[in-house]
């Protein structure tokens, strides 16, 4: 079988993504590889496809049990024989895997690096054919990486014990020079093909909001969303926000390092299996979460730097479907972040000077993070620039590009407001801006009755305008000097006179309403397919996205396949999944189709 066949038939993808094909070709051509691709770019496929094309059993080194389980489960679902070996296995299961490996029945074995010192494992590896060793999360080999794992240092020695040197391919999302050169050196890569694909994730919509009340904003954002992650900077915040959501009827789980591992596991499982709509967590939640259908990541507090932010926010939309990353920003959070920096290196064994060096570095990073929150420029461009990538235009897919400002002509409304002040003056009255607003909105209260304001010609002439909008325009007129407010009284200025006499216009910039979650056109069908997916997954005891990703369901909504052949055209549906689940999903689609008719 060749790579394209594997891609279409097993994985059901219509094409390779950026960089994937080159990597597959290099591995198949026998060359070592060092691949730096951002989270969600599709690194797994780059070693899984060669593993299927090559003879023998590929070995994948992966740092976390949960990561292995996810990937092996995914592979089994599409009919590929794969297994993982780690400390969670019973010895019987372990021997069964060894038996299948010796019989040449396994295309991939996933193992934790600690395995590499187990006698029986080493013996087996030296006796079976291993054409490829893929090292996932390869930055774990470096002290400079965020997640240094000493046992990764054993990998190079292990590879030397194999009877034939396999192709070695390393994968990471960390792009710094120090980490990359550590990976090359410590994994003993042999003149590797090195590739760093762009860090852009076009399907992610970035946004920074500065709400008055974060809780209200969060409730608004989470409305009708399922599968969101909300990151908080402290355990206390996690608990408070979690309680607040529950109080408001949102199914939420909470996760931080202060909970027992049992509690954490339950929270994580509930989230993976779509049993809760939201998980509220500190940054302890993350590595090892391969859930592909996360439509939204909210940061309730400012993260400590853009590296952390991009990594955490990047957990949204891994399957390539549109997803949002919203940061709720308040200046108060910056103070907390600084406080955390001050305390961060205290208990380390570093000298005072070294601690200060690190703190200095952290402050600089935080400053850049803050600049991201304050900027009115394209957010995507800011992020990519930070990672050393040039992005020459505005992305048109971030909060600042899309929904920040809308320019409007508010001349008529301004005239009405000013004339209200004028009419009052004619009666020898001056009022503050709130009273003026009430008159314009036509609000009858005892004050307006007492003063006879209901008989003013301007009473109620703006009753169809939203109070918030009126407020903004009035503020604009104050700010721009058409009206002066002195204590409780408002008066018109010369500028206002000019404006009226010379029939000038007033142009204003409004913050546009924020984009809400993109909803597929036939949302009803999408919900039905999601329900079926959940039921199917529950029966199998796997997370829903293992059955089909959101992107796949969205594609079904768009293509409305009527039969098996058409179903195979849906992105993410390979032969195996079509056979397994096709019938049920087609039934739901056909039912929908019957009801609504062709378009
Ligand atoms: P990474 O390890 O780089 O973070 P993954 O390998 O977990 O990313 O892949 C992320 C998602 O992208 C998965 O849901 C996967 O199915 C999807 N994916 C990978 N390659 C393709 C492709 N060529 N076409 C469509 N989807 C893809
Ligand atoms: Mg990965």
Question: In terms of topology, how is this protein built?
Answer:
Blueprint: H1 3-10, H2 20-28, E1 33-36, H3 43-53, E2 58-61, H4 65-77, E3 82-85, H5 91-102, E4 108-111, H6 119-127, E5 132-135, H7 155-160, E6 167-172, H8 177-186, E7 193-196, E8 204-209, H9 214-222, E9 228-231, H10 235-247, E10 252-255, H11 261-272, E11 278-281, E12 296-299, H12 306-313, E13 323-328, H13 331-344, H14 352-374, H15 379-386, H16 399-402, E14 405-409, H17 411-426, H18 433-441, H19 446-451, H20 467-479, E15 483-486, E16 489-492, H21 494-501, E17 507-511, H22 523-540, H23 544-547, H24 550-559, H25 564-568, H26 575-596
The structure holds adenosine-5'-diphosphate (ADP) and magnesium ion.
Overall average residue pLDDT? 90
What is the CATH class of the largest domain? Alpha Beta
Kindly state the percentage of residues in helix: 40-55%
**Intertermini distance:** 39 Å
